[in-house]
Amino acid sequence: MALTRRNFVRAAGLAGAAGSVALLAGCARGAADSDANEPVAAGAAGAGVGPDGVSQVVITMTPSSEPAAGFDPLVGWGAGEHVHEPLIQSTLIATDNNLAFVNDLATDYGCSEDGLTWTFHIREGVMFTDGVPLTAEDVAFTINGIVNGEAAEADLSMVDEARAVDAITCEIAMKRPNNALLYTLAVVGIVPAHAYGPDYGEHPIGSGRYMLEQWDRGQQVILRANPDYYGDAPLMDRVVVLFMEEDASLAAAQSGTADVAYTSAALAGAVPAGYALLNCASVDSRGISLPCNPAGTDVTVEGDMVYAGGNDVTSDLAVRRALNYGIDRSQMIEHVLAGFGRAAYSVGDGMPWSSEAMRVETDVAAAERLLDAAGWARGDDGMRARDGLPCAFDLYYAAGDSTRQALAYDFADQAAALGIAITPKGASWDDIYLRQYADPVLWGWGSNSPVELFELTYSTGWGNYAQYMSDTVDANLEAAQAARTVEESYPFYQAAQWDAATETGVAPEGAATWVWLANVDHLYFEREGLKVAEQKPHPHGHGWSLVNNIDRWSWS
User: Fold this and answer.
1) Within a 10 A sphere around the Cβ of 218, how many other Cβ atoms?
2) Which of 8, 98, 130, 479 fits a disulfide with 18 by CB distance 3.0 to 4.6 angstroms?
3) For residue 407, is pLDDT > 60?
4) What CATH code would you report for 285-520?
C-alpha cells in the first residue's frame, strides 16, 4: 500500500456550490518573457503532432504524480491523495466547471427517504475497450472492491454494499446517510469485473475517453483516445505525460520538449519564448495545525497505536488566536509566492460550504493584547514566556518542499515580532507523521469537496491533528453528511466552522485549531497555439487535475 497521510495511521495499524466556485474557475495567461530563450523550431518534439500524424500534447508532472500502483481505481488512481478524473475509466457521475454534479455512466440516480439506499441507472451500450459491455455488475464490483480493499485510498467507508439489481440498475446500501458519497463517486473509475486481476494497474481496461498506450515507469505515460468512447470524441488524440522534477520541467519547456510544463512561483518569471504563463486558480491551501491539548495527551488510533500528542504552548487558546490575527498573509504571499496565490483562511475558501467567519483581518495589536492578557510576558530579548515556559514551539514541514520551507520561515519571522519563538524543522513525512499530534505541522490540503473539512474538524476524523473535540461541531458535521442533498449540507458545514448561537466552532474567534496561510496558484508554461480548456478550481497538488478535460484541448 502506498503510504500517504490519509492511510498512514491505518497502515501502521495493519503493520502492528456553484456561484462562489465560479469565481475560482478557469486560468489566467501571462505574456511570454521577452528575454527568454529562442522559440523552438517548427516540427520539434511536442509541437502538437505525434509521430503518426495525430494531434498530441506533451505535459510535465511531478514525480509524485506517477501512480505507484498503476491505473487502478481500486487502489489510488483518480480518488487517491490528489483527486482527479480517471480518464481511462468512466465514472458514474462527474462535476462540471462549477462543481455541479452531472451524469456520466449514470442516466439518473436518487436516494431513498431514509438516506440509506442510492439507486443508479446505467446507460446502455457502453463497451469496455476489450469489447465487453459495461453493466451494473461492473459498478457493484468496483464499489465493493474499494469498500473491502485494504489498499483502497478512495473513501467509501460509508457504504455497506453495492448490488446489481439488473444489467442497468445498481443499488448502494449505506451504513449511514452520507451525501459525500457523490463526491467520491465522481472520481471513482469503473473497472471490468471480468478482466480485473493483480496486473490491472499496469494493463487497465476501461470505458473512458482514453486508453493506456505505454507506461515507462519513472519516466512517462502515453494515453491515446478511445475510438469507441460513447461520448463526444476527444479533440486531442494522444497525451504524453513526463514525470520530472521542477528544474527538469523548466528545461523541458526551454527545449520545446513539453507543451505544458508545471512550474513554481520562484521560476514563473522565466517564461520561455513561444510560451505563456498559465495561472490556474486553486483551493490548494497551506495551513498549520495547532494541537489544542497540553503535552502528554497521547493519541491512540486503531485501538493500540499510540502517538505522542499535545503541546503546552499551542494548547493555550490565546496563542492560537494570536497567531491567526497576527500574521500578515498578503505580505507572506508576496515574499514567498511572488504574488502567485491568495490569502487562505480555511481548507475550502470560496467553496459553497466555506464560512465567512473563517476570514480574519491582520490585527497585530489585537494579537499582542491576547498574549498579554493570557500572561505571556516579553523578556529582555523580546520573546515571551509564562511561569517559566517559553512561548516557543517547533514547526515541521516537508523537507523536500522549498515553498513550504519558505512559508515556514516567513511565518516564524512574523511570529517572532509577536514574541513567539518558532523553530522550523524540515523532516521526512515518516518523521512528521510521528509528531503530527504533538507539534504544529505545515500541511498542504485542498479538495473540490467538503470531505477534507469534515476529516480535519470531526473529533475522530483522520485529519484532526489539532485534536479539538466538540459535540456541537460533530453534530453539525454529521447533520451535513446526513442532509438529503449536498446543497442542504452547506449551512451545517458552515456552522461547524462557526455557530454564533452556541459560540462554538473552529474559526479564529472560536477554537482556532489551525492558522491558514495561503492558497497556492498552480502555474504552468503553456506553448503558444495550444488551447487549454477552462479549468475547474485545482485541488491540492500539481498533476492530473490539470488534464481532467484534456479531451477538450486543441491546437489552433
Assistant:
1) 9
2) 98
3) yes
4) 3.10.105.10
